[in-house]
6,7-dimethyl-8-ribityllumazine synthase (Enhydrobacter aerosaccus), 207 residues
Amino acid sequence: MKESVAQRIGDTPCVRREDVLVHPDSSLNDVCEGLMNQNITAVATKSGRDGSANDEARFAFVQSCWHREIVDQGRDSFLSEMRRRGIAASRIDLYEVPGAFELPLHAKVLGRSGRYAAVVACGFVVNGGIYRHEFVAEAVISGLMSVQLEIEVPVISAVLTPRDFHDHEEHRKFFHDHFRVKGIEAAAACVSTAAALDRVRDVAEAA
């Protein structure tokens, strides 16, 4: 697969902050704590197309750049939670696309490469007042689902599609914090779905 499929962020992805889960709102802290206290499971998946066992499964994280300062929170908390679950940063490749509309195609190309046990798509679809954002939101979410059903590689959605978003401090802070939660959820789903799918495939192959 050509690296030019998307702009890769450096050779070795890293988390820029250690305190991505800190938040003064106790209710959000409760959500984060509950997610982080889930059983931590090491991933041993069959990420290669040949079905060979691979304890060093790789994962792809592709994000849109629209409202980057908000979407970045999902990426940072995802990397932090994956590291906490025993997945080294060197096993996660980061990619960027201009907007959420480009996420399904890039997820498809990355998933089809046979390099990744799962692909995470992270983006923010908001109503900009120019077009019906519902059309874009439905296209993106449906596209991601169609991709994983077609290529049979988990595509985890960390795409938020709020009906109302106003570019002021209150809304920016709310979604800034909410993407932190989405990043943790995406990491948990990434690990558990990849492992569960391998178990299902083992059963199917043994039948």
Q: What stands out?
A: The first helix runs from residue 26 to 36.
